[in-house]
């Protein structure tokens, strides 16, 4: 029997992590570890991610304050379209980029749109 990995697993776990941190729950040990996230991001050029829409993962990594993982995601070959979009937004502006990303309604709306398309109603 062949097991098919859910490509939304990382996003679901990130959402749980974000909610748990906000609510300060004690069950964080049941979530993916840092090593798990790294594995999902880099394994076979993002085999376990929806690489065409990795903006959602990037956004939630920032919300969870996983800035190193967000940078690792941006460095991947499959995230070149995301890098290009972000570079276009911030050409000539070297101040408060992360804050701008978190507060930018267009980025949030795109992320929510992708989440709904991927049937992750809890994220939206």
In short:
The chain is 59% helix and 0% strand. By secondary structure, the chain is mainly α. The chain has one domain (9-117).
Topology, element by element:
Elements: H1 9-23, H2 34-42, H3 55-63, H4 67-75, H5 80-90, H6 97-103, H7 105-117
Helix pairs in contact: 1-3, 3-4
Element-level helix/strand string: HHHHHHH
Net shape:
globular
The share of residues in extended strands comes to: under 5%
Counted up, domains total 1
State the distance separating the first and last CA atoms.
33 Å
What fraction, in percent, of the residue positions are helical? 55-70%
Average pLDDT reading: 75
Computed Rg = 14 Å
Helical segment count: 7
- Let me know the number of strands: 0
Low-pLDDT runs of 5+ residues are none
Structural class label: mainly alpha
Biggest sheet character? none
Word description of this protein:
With 124 residues, the protein is mainly α. It has one domain (9-117). It contains seven helices and no strands. It has helices at residues 9-23, 34-42, 55-63, 67-75, 80-90, 97-103, 105-117. Helix 1 runs parallel beside helix 3 (55-63). The model has no long low-confidence stretch (mean pLDDT 75).
What attributes does this structure have?
124 residues, mainly alpha, 7 helices
